[in-house]
Design brief:
The two termini are 44 Å apart. The longest helix is centred in the middle third of the chain and has 24 residues. Helix 1 packs across helix 7 and helix 7 crosses helix 8. The strands form three sheets. This protein has a seven-stranded mixed beta sheet, sandwiched between helices. A three-stranded antiparallel beta sheet has the order 7-8-9, covered by helices on one side. A two-stranded antiparallel sheet has the order 10-11. By secondary structure, it is of the alpha/beta class. It is elongated. The protein is built from 17 helices and twelve strands.
Length: 402
Amino acid sequence: MDRLPLPLEGITVVAVEQAVAAPFATRQLADLGARVIKVERTDGGDFARGYDTAARGLASHFVWCNRGKESIALDLKDPRGLDVVRRLVADADVFVQNLAHGAASRLGLDAATLCAAHPRLVAVDVSGYGASGPYAGKRAYDMLVQCEAGLVSVTGTPEQPVKAGIPAADIAAGMYAFSGVLAALVRRGTTGRGGPVEVSMLEALAEWLGHPLHHTIHGGTPPERTGLAHAVIAPYDAYPTADGGRVLLSVQNDREWRRLAEQVIERPELGADPAFATNAARVANRARTDDLVGTALAALGCDEALARLEAAGIACARLRDLSELAGHPQLAARDRWREVGSPVGPLRALLPPITLPGGDEALMGDVPALGQHTGALLRAVGMTDAEIAALRRDGVAAWARA
């Protein structure tokens, strides 16, 4: 049987994007076969390029979110630079932008304007709080939106709320922008029309807060912050082991508790003890329950603790750090690592989690240098050598440094 092509082959995306939310969305499109043209500023490009130098001199955020794209550097305040973008959009299937509030409209690059001019275009506006309402013009960095959406209020310990360790608001918005593009392309396939797509970071993250939100508005009280523990199940927490590791386990029912008591704690009488026999009793006696489990696991090495828990049929996990994730045996066994090119040489990267068996593998293209494709793209939209030379001379367009 012939292998299926990547589903977005033949789709061209133009993105005036920065930071994480929009670049993360368009990277998913690139991985699935779309051609993504990234429009960057001439003075440094996407400011995420400067967040850090952890990836062998490149910024880790930028490497993560921008592989497989072509970079063109343009000054959109100059009418000639803006004209280049409009020429690119005229031949594109998708346009994505996450400029500051009002900036896209002033440039005529908002979704409504572009879709009116190009009925088959799918045009995406990604914003912090949406195009209207009292927060529309408010700055919307990831941690700020985590606070506004209430994520911080349910993350952390009873004493201390904390932000998520990943840019959760950016990722949520990026994934809804990605799925919104796919949905709009399907609709275009049946109607012939694209149309605007709007995604806000606040609304995306509020959707992700669905469980604690419904718990609060329907139950009357917000869930408590419990660190790694579970608010209504015990034992469900991470416990230290003798070799300095930590093992998280979850007992979901009373049968499992009896197996844990017999095979791991090695006190089978606890299975019928009224103080621990039911989940409600274990939650009411959480400190004593945790002490029993913690004492048993503290006498075991991490590997032995996990082996005993697995043998007893208890859900468990090793509490890993990121270095351990990079060496995770499951990722290695499933051959999930690849190398992508970059201006500093090959870099390790994970295959995207969408796997399409029987089809071509995700593209995993190179991370571009700023303006790496400027010359080729200017020629592709019909500019003459003299026009290109003028753009370069006047700083309207920029090229990657040799």
